[in-house]
């Protein structure tokens, strides 16, 4: 009997010891394991549950201060970090399920665990990925979740699908000879080539060439921008920003050019308002640049019309110089007529045609500058007295205009205006002298 009592007492003492000792072992094992474990890339070394949650929330808030950038196939989209909802509570449950052990398994060696945060992704993210038209949506979404659930970099590389599917048909084509003074066209071409024009996402020329802006001169920049603008006009893209060069170029009609100025924030921007992505293709062929806009299917026929509203004749400016020989003159600057042009775009869809005014530009005339000799012939006093209209040599009509030659010369010197357009065709633009003020009003002047 006494033996049973002793055994019972020993069992009771053992139970008490296990109750006190085993939990301590479990805690020690868990802490040893927690020293190496992470949740969402955040170390949980020596932290209790409350401290772990606070550390995770703080890290998440810091991470959400910057947008998520997804890049691929010359496309970059920005995702609002608030579209990703982090479930800290579920993450803690998973952590405990992997680290907590029963009291009777206290002798097992603890293992470090590294688990990602649980993330709920808003459906808007998938829609933005699908809108690119050239990304593998599910693969890209998985890459985003993997990176975000571990609070890693905000820049993610998309999985690019085969983009040849959107090269089936050509929407626009522009081919022009590269100006001889344009330097860096090849560098601009390489960075823009195969850019994807996403639906409802503005394309900015300055943004597209930002890395190569300083590697090309302004002639090359304006030339490539003009080529892109000319191609965009052949589609139904919305032209949201474009600036005229205000002078005639040697590669495109007036009204089809574009001017870029980073200092003055003058950009070329257009928007693809369709629901399909398009592709830009730029290639240098010999001494020419070819720009194409490609799509999976061409649904509209579009034509561009340039109309000259007014032709403004240049004025002739006469200057005098004693450095020229007597009776001679030189053309210091050739004159060039000014013009106001209007650009119209016609869209044929489902048998219906609509026309819209895209732009109205004014290209001022370049005045003709002539330098004449200011030297006068040396005339004796006697010759001067006899030099009147009675001299038969002065009455000769050698040029056959019906007037004495001396009067013809005086008439010519008093009229500095160039020949004007005498066409009577009612479709021809009006030929006038004048200029446009800042309000777009035409101010007519006399020759």
UniProtKB/TrEMBL annotation:
The keyword Thylakoid does not apply. It holds the Pfam family G5. Residues 374-447 are annotated as: Disordered. The chain crosses the membrane at residues 7-27. Residues 388-402 have a biased composition (Acidic residues). It comes from the Bacteria. Residues 413-424 have a biased composition (Polar residues). Keywords: Membrane, Signal, Transmembrane, Transmembrane helix. Residues 297-376 form the G5 domain. This is G5 domain-containing protein. It comes from Lysinibacillus xylanilyticus. The lineage of its organism: Bacteria, Bacillati, Bacillota, Bacilli, Bacillales.
């Amino acid at each position: 009997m006494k033996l049973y009592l002793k055994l019972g007492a020993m069992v009771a003492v053992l139970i008490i010891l296990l109750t006190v000792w085993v939990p301590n072992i479990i805690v020690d094992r868990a802490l040893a394991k927690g020293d190496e474990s992470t949740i969402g890339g955040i170390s949980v070394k020596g932290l209790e549950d409350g401290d772990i949650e606070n550390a995770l929330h703080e890290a998440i808030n810091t991470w959400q201060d910057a947008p998520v950038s997804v890049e691929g196939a010359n496309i970059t989209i920005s995702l609002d970090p608030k579209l990703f909802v982090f479930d800290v509570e579920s993450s803690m449950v998973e952590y405990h399920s992997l680290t907590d052990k029963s009291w009777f398994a206290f002798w097992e060696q603890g293992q470090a665990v590294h688990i990602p945060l649980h993330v709920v992704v808003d459906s808007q993210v998938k829609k933005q990925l699908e809108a690119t038209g050239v990304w593998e949506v599910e693969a890209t979404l998985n890459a985003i979740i993997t990176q975000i659930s571990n609070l890693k970099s905000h820049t993610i590389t998309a999985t690019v699908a085969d983009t040849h599917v959107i090269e089936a048909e050509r929407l626009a084509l522009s081919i022009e000879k590269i100006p001889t003074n344009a330097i860096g066209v090849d560098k601009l071409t390489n960075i823009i080539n195969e850019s994807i024009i996403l639906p409802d996402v503005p394309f900015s020329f300055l943004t597209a060439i930002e890395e190569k802006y300083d590697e090309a001169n302004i002639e090359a920049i304006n030339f490539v921008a003009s080529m892109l603008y000319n191609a965009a006009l052949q589609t139904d893209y919305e032209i949201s920003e474009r600036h005229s060069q205000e002078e005639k170029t040697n590669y495109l009609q007036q009204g089809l050019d574009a001017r870029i100025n980073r200092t003055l924030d003058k950009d070329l921007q257009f928007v693809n308002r369709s629901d399909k992505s398009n592709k830009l293709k730029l290639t240098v062929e010999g001494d020419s640049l070819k720009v194409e806009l490609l799509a999976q299917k061409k649904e509209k026929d579009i034509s561009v019309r340039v109309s000259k509203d007014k032709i403004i004749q240049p004025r002739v400016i006469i200057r005098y110089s004693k450095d020229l020989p007597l009776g001679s003159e030189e053309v210091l600057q050739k004159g060039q007529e000014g013009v106001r042009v209007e650009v119209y775009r016609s869209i044929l869809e489902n048998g219906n045609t609509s026309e819209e005014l895209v732009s109205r530009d004014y290209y001022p005339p370049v005045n003709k500058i002539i330098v004449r000799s200011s030297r006068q012939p040396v005339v004796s006093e006697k010759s001067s007295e006899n030099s009147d209209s009675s001299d038969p040599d002065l009455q000769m009509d050698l040029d056959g205009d019906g007037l004495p030659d001396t009067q013809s010369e005086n008439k010519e010197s008093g009229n500095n205006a160039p020949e004007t357009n005498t066409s009577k065709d009612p479709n021809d633009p009006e030929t006038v002298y004048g200029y446009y003020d800042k309000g777009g009003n035409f101010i007519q002047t006399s020759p």
